[in-house]
Structure formats: structure tokens, C-alpha cells
Design brief:
Blueprint lengths: L2 E3 L10 E2 L1 H10 L1 H11 L6 H13 L7 E2 L9 H5 L1 H17 L24 E5 L4 H11 L3 H11 L5 H10 L4 H18 L17 E5 L2 H25 L20 H6 L12 H4 L18 H12 L6 E4 L13 E8 L2 E7 L3 E8 L7 E6 L10 E7 L2 E6 L5 E6 L8 E2 L11 E2 L11 E6 L4 E5 L7 E5 L6 E2 L3 H8 L13 E13 L6 E11 L6 E7 L22 E7 L12 E7 L5 E7 L3 E8 L3 E4 L2 E6 L5 E7 L4 E3 L3
Parallel strand pairs: 1-24, 6-10, 18-20
Antiparallel strand pairs: 2-3, 4-5, 7-8, 8-9, 9-10, 11-12, 12-15, 13-14, 13-16, 16-17, 17-18, 18-19, 20-21, 21-22, 22-23, 24-25, 25-28, 26-27, 26-29, 29-30
Helix pairs in contact: 1-5, 2-3, 2-5, 7-8, 7-9, 8-9
Length: 660
Amino acid sequence: MLNVSTQEPGPSPLGPVDVEQAEAALVEHYPRLVRIAYLVLPPSLGRNRRVLTAHALVQRSLPRRRTSLREPAAPRTPEDAVDPGYAYVRGEVLRQALVAGLPLRRRALPRRAQFPPLLPQVWGLRLFPRAGGADELALDQRLSALSGPARAAYVLRGLERQGDPEVLRVLRVAGVDEETARAALAAADEAALTGGGGAAALLDSAEFDPCSLQARPTDLMRRRQHGKAALAATAAVVVCGTLLGLPGDGWGRNGAAAPSYARNPAAEAALDPGRVRRIAPAVWQSSTRTDFSVWPERGGLTGDRALLRRALAVWARPGGSVRSSATPGTPVGPPMGSPQLLYAGEVDGARVVLFHDGLRAVRYAEPVGSTSGAALDFARTDGADAVESAALVVSRSSGNVRYLTAPWVRETAVRDLLAPAKEPWALRRSADGVTDPVLSPAQARTCTSWNTLQVRDETGLRLLTDLGELTPARLLSGPPAAPVDATGGEARAAWARTACQLSAVRSRGVRSVNSWRFAAQPLPENGGRAAWVCTRAETWRGNGSRTLAQFQAPDPAPAGAGGPGAAARPPVPAALAAQAEDSPACGVRDPRVLAGVLWQARSGQWYVLAAGTSDFASLETSGGVTGRTEGHLLALKAKAGARADLNGTLRGGARVGALR
């Protein structure tokens, strides 16, 4: 259950940490995590090795499987409060950085962090942060005189803005014993007094930024000697491999597979730019289907055969330098026959080609003026209808996204989900159907706004949101059996407090997201009326759905309205009460859902609150709080930090547990 206080609106759920949740926190806070590692590592390693080791430690900080925080440290920002992933990754970074500073012992096995990093490696260059001034140099000297735990304490207080109790807890989680942690805190105090009041602010300077680097060459003569030796070794390996590949029992047999130099007519036809399928502009108006299969070819480079040939070749055989991504469950193999050309043009300094082969949408992009640095993206689109094939992402640049819209889309606009009363503003499109850039919520660091694409087709308005994939997800509202597009005023007001939870389903191959208020509950002590909301994200592949149960306490003041540039206070986001993956709850097959939270009234009294859908006859709790109530709502007095098991009984007599 989750602690929710009316005195502090920002809830801080703690519990199991998914690998995906930790990865999202690592990517979002990567520069800060690397800076923390660089500052805590011992200066005796040298600036080049400290830089590479700091990056290696952060990149090795993901959990191997679902795990839990052993003892939560107080988070630095409200964003950290809703996502324990950052607290977990930061603790792992500190633990490894402290281990890296330990001396090697003769009778003890060395730890991985004490060795030079295998990756990342930069050949032929030495990397180090930009030099600072006299104040930064003095601070670096003071830090070098401290122990590893003392440096960590100094960094946590100066860079993370944490108080002494929080610093002690973080150090304990990182493996530092109580006595050493208190000594480290005292040493950090002494260093802070020596440096003056403004010394901690220098931790944010370029002197300690291992993500903004200068490069210098290594010993060039030694590199030349090593290069000659490597060339001789490579020649020897090639000769031995050739001998082993001769007919016989060597490596030359490949079963039924054709040799790499064989000519396959079907594969060659799929890679021929002259055979790509091209749809005429008016076909969609008379077709019985309205999906990607009737999109016409568009763009100023549809006749560039060399570009199409490169795009098809990279699709079939992507090289090691190609940056490739695919939504979960999407095959990344070569085209299954000649694909359909959707778009070929120049967007944001890149040549972009969009294909469709019936199962997937594929995006190829290369920088203008160069054929290196290509990118390849895959997304499943099988079974898409007219709404789900209304747009594709054609470009991402500088935190913005551009869409290529379907020919049946009549109008496009941008609507901020966090400002439900604000009118949408028009989004212009080119003659080819490419929109102007719009700020993407999939790349935003904070949730102060959530821009969605509003499209109008022949049947009405739709809302689509970018979740970091080629296909934007459709936003719905209503019971699972009959959801509707979230374009009405009541649906937008509900989504305003739910939108920030969409970050939990980024890059998961999401097809649509439905948000449904399954219960409303009067709060004890005249605390107002709370809403219970179930949000379910369905995927293109069928499995992998994610269900979130949320508790929406009364918002003290509704969000304001304004124009496109007006500043309106976002509503207080809903608190995440429970979540589940691959669960039928809150879906068409099983619309039932049950969840609970620990809530504090204004008087200071804590309560266990729970709610289920209307088909629950009674609810009961056991464990830390024991009680039972008739109906689908429950409110019981409890103590701070109490934990209880929640179950419900349906009207037919079956028992159902809470969402988890």
C-alpha cells in the first residue's frame, strides 16, 4: 500500500523496482549519476580513468531482475518520489564507486569495480573534463584528501541537497557501516567549513562534468607499434580460418543455408527499389480498408532510387554502426517481399524513408550529406484501424517530434493533457502531411506538460500521444467494454491527473491506453470525495499489458486555463496505488479491480482506504490492520507505516485479491 498525506501532496511509493523502471531512471538522470560517480571515485585513478570508470559504473547499475529497495533514502526531487528507480540506481552507483576506491588486498578476491573498465573504451584518445578555475581546483584538492565515504557524503549534501539523516541512510544502503558513515559526515562538515558556503555549488561546474569532455591523443609511437603487431596477428588468424574452412570437417559446412554469395531471387526482389509498392493518392477514398495499406507515397525524395536502395539494404543487413530499435515483440528481419513506400523526404537535417510491409512500420534515417550514422526503427502495426493508422512519427529532434498524418486526417492540433480547460492550438502540416515540430512528452525530463496530438477525421476527434515509438498510442476513457476517445471535458479532466503515469508505459509497444474511474469514495473526517482510477495500456503484440490503479485525492485548487503560451498550474497527479503486468484486471476479459492505499487526514490520523468495482459485495483487511466492511468501499483507522493485506468477495461468492 502507498502512503498518501494531505499535508504533502507528492506521494512517494516505495517497493519493487522493475528493470525497465530502473533503466528509465538511469537514462533520464544519466549525466547526474555519472557526475556523482566521478566525484566519489578516488582522484588517484587519474582524470581519464575516472571518466571511463564513472560511465562504466553507471551503466552497470541496472538490476538483473525485479528487486526491492532495502532501505529507501529520502529522494531529491518530487520526480524521484514517484519513481524509486532513481534511488535504487543512485545507491548502486555509490556502492560501486566506494568499492572502486578500496585498496587491493593480497588475500582477498578483488571486486569488479576495482579493475579498469572493459567498456566504455576510447582508442587513441585520452578524455577528461574541461578545466575549471582556482575555486574548482581547490575543491578538487579538498575532495582528494577525503575518504570515499566522506566524498560521498559531501556530494550527497552538496549536489543532491540531502539532509544528514538522509545521507546516513544512503551511505548505509551503499554498504557503509554506521560508525564509518558518521565519521564520513563529520569529515564532510569539516571540508564544507574549509571551502566556505559557496563551495558545494561548484559541484555543478564543468570541472566535474564527465559528460562534457576534452580529448587529447595518447602516445602515437606506441600506437604505431601496437598496430603493426595487431595486423600481423590478424593475418595469422585469417590464414588459419581459411584452412579450417576448406571442405572436410572444418567450419565450412552450413547445412541447408545458401552461401553468402548465393543469389536469391525473392530476396533480391524485396531489395529492388523499382519494385516497392506505391499507392496512388486517391485509393483510400474508394478502398474497403482504411489503414496503412492505403497510405499514398509522399515526400520529395520518393524518386531517389539510391536512397531507397540504401534504406532497403540497411533494413535487410544492418551494419554494426546502424542505430537500431524495435518495439517489444516486433521482428527485425528483412522485408517479407517488396514493401510499401509511405514517405521519402528530408526532415530536420535527415533523409527519412518510411516503409510498411503489412506487419511492421519501418523508419530509415540518415544525415543529409552522409551515408554514415544511419538509424533504423521497427514498430508492429498489424490489425491497425483508421484511428491507429492516423499518424506515424517521422522525426525526433531537440526534444520535439514531427508526425506524418494519414490522408483522411482533416485537422491536427496540440492539446496539453495537464491543462484540460485550455483550448488546443492548431498544428500546421506541409503539403505532404508532415506536421510542425511539437514538444514530445516521451523525451521530457519533468512532467509539467503532456502534449498530445489531436486529429479530426471523418468520424470525429481523436487523441494520440507519443510514447517514444513510431506509432503514437490512442487515448481512451470509459469502462473496458465500451471505451471512447478521451476528447470530452470529463475525460480530459480525469486524464489531467493521470497523464504523468504514462511515463510508466513508454517504449513498451503500446497500442492504446484506457483510463476508467471505477469508484468514488467519501473520505473520512470530511476530507472530500476521492476517485479511484484504473489505467490499462494494451500492446500491439497482445501480451505485455500493464494495469495501474490510482488514488485521486481531492485537488486543493483546480488547474487554471489559458492559451497556448499561458502558464497554468498542473493538477496534483494521482497516487499510484498498485500496478500489474499481463493481468486481465481492468480489461475486457475481467473488468474487476481492487486496490488500497494508506491515507492521512488533516488531523494527522492515518486510514486504510480501499475500493473495488461495483460487483464487490464486501472488502476485508488482515495483517497490520484488521477489519471488514460491506460493499465495495472500505475506510479503517490505522497507524503510520501500517501494512495490510486486502481481499474482496464478489456478489457471487468468489474471493478476489487486490491488484499487484
